[in-house]
């Protein structure tokens, strides 16, 4: 497995030809009356061509606005990617936004996600952040990954993220 920082011109729909965004969700975390509980919530998440077009536009924008996109490759095929937005935010100007982290279905459990997370954390630290902010999918499996990485519920919620994805879990990772 190899990794690299992606340039804007490398981010095209064809980059995702061998990437499978698939998740069969059966249980999700929800905050009810101030307590986190697991609920039976089932749906299939699988990206199509239109989703990849939107993704490409977002990732290009990340690079063009001072952020970073990392990709991991196996045999020359993209199998994981993660992005951190440029621009520190929050009351105390301590957060950078981990806007995406995805591992192809066929590579989950192989360490790709951990590598991408560490690359993003290192980049954020080098760019002046004290914390990564993550508006994270509420699926039990996704939350288990973030917990294993050392994330916790965000002390300060980003209003834009909450409004855009009200079911997401708002997390932070302290960069030491």
From TrEMBL:
UniProt xrefs under SUPFAM superfamilies: Acyl-CoA N-acyltransferases (Nat)
Keywords annotated in UniProt: Transferase
Ranges of residues in domain N-acetyltransferase: 11-168
Domain of life assignment: Bacteria
Any one GO molecular function term: acyltransferase activity, transferring groups other than amino-acyl groups
Protein's name according to its UniProt entry: GCN5-related N-acetyltransferase
